[in-house]
Design brief:
Oligomer: single chain
Structural class: alpha/beta
Number of strands: 19
Helix content: 25-40%
Radius of gyration: 24 Å
Shape: elongated
Bound molecules: ligand BES, zinc ion
Strand content: 15-25%
Number of helices: 15
Distance between the termini: 28 Å
Largest sheet: 8 strands, mixed
Length: about 500
């Protein structure tokens, strides 16, 4: 998307669509704001906007929208009125959502350009650059379209330019737009990787795409193939991949800032390019399991964006990638394997494979002495029952770190909720002839999976994000289509940018 700054008024702009937000007020009056161009626009249309909105009973509630043609009275063909909710409830997320609504309506009405006014003063506690960043993120994320396998592109998006009317100095706003498009490029790269079908994206092609795309100042990428994974004795990854014809891959990304960094962060991702369940074959919704590398994709997306954002903190990325398939060579329930850390694990369910590949990746990460670890994984169906598609489950061994991750997510528009790491449930994992079993007896599957992972972080401050619910959407939301969401790329990036 092209973003252009202008000092002209909305009614004077040569664009297809102009958008204006209206806040919800207690007196239910339609009140255009002078500063966002609404008053001028209404005047240019002889008060028609106020009349039509009043007749419709438009209240300015979040999610409300009204598209009005301008009948050639002014240059823009359409005015899109968007509810912004009450001034008190206004958040950066409401802006992202309204940005998404602009993209949807613009493309539906074949608009090539759209415009809106950026108020220079603080709104709802957010300064203009921060609001511009959220708005531009919404625009870019809403513009993602996974259509490369459609022979006939039916509904090609038309919107290519956003004009931002701003009175003040636009330099900080331009920087905000650049940040937003870097963030969104990371998000959309993660979404593409996750949406790609598993016959196209296997561990090897996954690694290739990452190496090709995640590069830039300060970034290196090293890929371990089957031979190296064997040499590392990554027993978890080897067991999961042994039933598949595709070899596993282990990808190590590293970002070193120019300014010396005191802190090192490790991002670890589950990269199962297809999870059939293995011999414990899935009986339901197996076709959804191409998304089982979404955690790994989010690590890759974060590095893609970091090349442009150049944060001041050192970051390692570790991706454990494999398929999980049944065959004559597949690992079996009751197998006992030895993990990279030396711990032995009894396989009680081959569908609990994510924790096996992650455990080796977490253990591998420790040699680089990270101060903090976060892993992202589509780990358990349970988290989907607990929190649905809009909240990620976060667990960890350090409360302050977990809270910091959740806070960054909130600012970034990715909601997360802490679940307790109930130590009593560990008992279920240790009742085994091996050191650990790969499933517990407790029903709290998301918690026991985390307790399993905790055994491999060696006391390092660690947060685990179970994105089984949030990695994909079954229904679109205001600025994100159905399919992959790129979660939690934005959480990672907001955390790193504010370090
Ligand atoms: N990849 C799945 C989890 C999943 C479920 C991801 C739904 C996305 C949407 C994971 O490997 C899995 O199969 N987990 C099992 C573990 C069980 C066998 C202990 C689960 O949670 O049901
Ligand atoms: Zn599984
Ligand atoms: Zn899985």
């Amino acid at each position: 998307m092209k973003f252009q700054f202008t000092k002209l008024k909305l009614a004077e702009l040569d664009v297809d669509l102009v958008a204006v937000q209206i806040f919800e007020t207690s007196d239910k009056q339609i009140t255009f704001q002078k500063t966002d161009g609404g008053t001028d626009l209404d005047k240019a249309l002889d008060g028609a906007l106020t009349k039509l909105l009043q007749a419709k009973g438009f209240a300015g509630k979040e999610g409300e929208s009204y598209l009005l043609p301008t009948f050639c009275k002014i240059k823009p063909r359409y005015v899109l009125i968007l509810g912004a909710g009450t001034k008190k409830s206004f958040s950066l997320e409401s802006l992202r959502k309204n940005a998404g609504r602009i993209v949807t309506v613009a493309n539906e009405y074949k608009a090539k350009s759209a415009a809106g006014v950026i108020e220079t003063k603080t709104v709802g506690g957010s300064a203009a650059p921060e609001r511009v960043r959220a708005f531009a993120e919404g625009i870019e994320i809403a513009s993602y379209n996974f259509d490369q396998y459609k022979s006939k592109k039916e509904k090609l998006p038309t919107l290519t330019t956003i004009h931002l009317v701003s009175g003040g100095n636009t330099k900080p706003l331009q920087a905000a737009v650049e940040q937003a498009s870097a963030v969104a490029a990371g998000v959309n790269f993660a979404r593409l990787l996750t949406d790609l079908p598993p016959n196209v994206l296997n561990p090897t092609t996954f690694g290739k795409r990452i190496a090709e795309n995640c590069k830039g100042k300060g970034i290196t990428c090293k890929i371990l193939g089957l031979k190296e994974i064997k040499a590392e004795k990554m027993g978890g990854i080897l067991a999961v991949s042994q039933g598949s014809l595709e070899p596993p891959a282990f990808i190590h990304l590293h970002y070193k800032p120019t300014k010396k960094s005191k802190t090192k962060i490790a991002l670890v991702g589950k990269g199962i390019t297809f999870d059939s369940g293995g011999l414990n074959i899935k009986v339901r919704e197996m076709e959804a399991m191409k998304c089982d590398m979404a955690g790994a994709a989010s690590v890759a997306g974060t590095f893609l964006a970091m090349a442009r954002l150049q944060p001041d903190v050192e970051v390692h990325g570790f991706i454990a990638s494999s398929e999980n398939l049944p065959s004559g060579t597949a690992f079996r329930p009751s197998d006992i394997i030895t993990m990279r850390s030396g711990k032995t694990v009894e396989i009680l369910n081959t569908d609990a494979e994510g924790r096996l590949v992650l455990a080796d990746a977490l253990d591998y990460s420790l040699q680089f002495k990270p101060d903090f670890i976060i892993d992202a994984a589509t780990l358990t169906g349970g988290v989907l029952y607990a929190l649905g598609e809009l909240y990620t489950g976060v667990l960890g061994n350090d409360n302050a770190w977990v809270q910091k991750v959740i806070k960054a997510g909130k600012k970034a528009g990715e909601n997360a909720w802490q679940l307790p790491l109930i130590q009593e449930y560990k008992k279920g994992l240790t009742k085994s002839p091996a050191d650990l079993a790969n499933i517990g007896v407790s029903k709290a599957g998301s918690i026991t999976a985390s307790l399993f992972l905790e055994e491999f972080v060696g006391g390092t401050k660690w947060a685990h994000m179970d994105i089984a619910g949030t990695a994909t959407l079954s229904e679109p939301i205001a600025y994100c289509s159905k399919g992959a969401t790129g979660n939690p790329v934005r959480t990672f990036l907001y955390l790193l940018m504010d370090w």
